[in-house]
Specification:
single chain; mainly beta; Neuraminidase; four-stranded antiparallel β-sheet; 1 helix; about 5% helix; WD40
Length: about 300
């Protein structure tokens, strides 16, 4: 693989992840059973896809691939395109509202015009009906990367770069003024609401390395939850709110979350603070960027990767 070539492509096409540019990778969509520890394969392709969401009715998963979104039926394993209208440059930051009616996407687009200021290109958040339709813009500014719905469906949480700093923000689904929740220098990313709507979990470099944190939904009472040798990203609370599943890089990655690395999925029990390693494989970017728990909280979906020779 020509690493320099793919790094250049990544810089030229920021709406697509590093791994999405690779044409020599196998992606495998899997399900992990919390009770048994078993892993089941749903779909495997000699192509790159990413970031499963589990539908609220339990019947299908959503993945992104080459800028588009697809449903993967859990009975037939059939993949079908979701109509996202003009939004055909979607990245791996997408997810389903708690009521199962809406889909949030992050699509490469121009920022909203402001008099006297040039527009910018970058990831912008939109919402549309889950069954497909015309996306409605939520964030006026770019780049903005969706990561969580509030349980009442009225707000979304996201990572955004403003003036050179990447922080956690929330905004009404109707748009308007965004609320900044983190201000510490360094990357804050992956915000996701707890099922009771009182807490936001996120990953942050505030301690000097990437760890999992929590805070109140107004940004107060920040607390670090992990502190180990790993680089920890993308904490997803279980439907009962008692645990978090997240991805850990075996080697410190700084503020990066690259693909094709040695990683583990781990489970943090919030009441005790205990952490259990569930499984290890090659992955990273695209594996579990967004919420992927089954509605009953017994399973979650993720993606593993392997190089292939073509």
């Amino acid at each position: 693989m020509n690493i320099k070539r793919y790094l250049l492509l990544f810089l030229l096409f920021p709406y697509m992840s590093f791994a999405q540019q690779m044409d020599n990778v196998r992606s495998t969509l899997e399900i992990y059973n919390i009770d048994t520890g078993e892993r089941d394969t749903v779909r495997s392709e000699e192509a790159h896809f990413e970031a499963p969401n589990w539908s609220r009715d339990g019947n299908f998963l959503i993945i992104n691939q080459q800028g588009k979104l697809y449903k993967v039926d859990l009975e037939s394993n059939k993949k079908t395109l979701i109509n996202t209208g003009f939004a055909d440059r979607c990245n791996n930051d997408h997810g389903i509202s708690f009521d199962g009616k809406w889909l949030a996407i992050s699509h490469q687009a121009a920022s909203e015009p402001v008099a006297g200021q040039p527009t910018k290109q970058g990831s912008r958040i939109y919402i549309l009906p889950l069954e497909g339709g015309t996306p409605k813009a939520v964030t006026p500014n770019v780049p903005s990367y969706w990561h969580g719905w509030s349980p009442d469906g009225q707000r979304v949480a996201y990572c955004a770069e403003r003036d050179g700093e990447y922080d956690v923000y929330t905004i009404s689904v109707d748009g308007g003024e965004e609320t900044r929740l983190t201000t510490t220098p360094g990357l804050d990313d992956g915000p996701e609401y707890s099922p009771d709507g009182k807490t936001i979990y996120y990953n942050s470099m505030a301690s000097g390395k990437m760890e999992i944190w929590q805070m109140n939904v107004d940004g107060s009472n920040k607390k670090q939850l992990t502190n180990d040798k790993y680089s920890n990203w993308f904490a997803h609370p279980s439907p009962d709110g008692k645990s978090l599943v997240y991805i850990s890089y075996h080697e410190d990655q700084g503020s990066a979350h690259p693909g094709m690395k040695a990683v583990s999925l781990r489970l943090l029990t919030l009441a005790s603070g205990s952490v259990k390693t569930l499984c290890s494989f090659t992955g990273g970017q695209g594996t579990i960027n967004v919420p992927s728990w089954s509605p009953d909280g017994k399973r979650f979906a993720f993606v593993t990767y392997a190089y292939i020779n073509k």
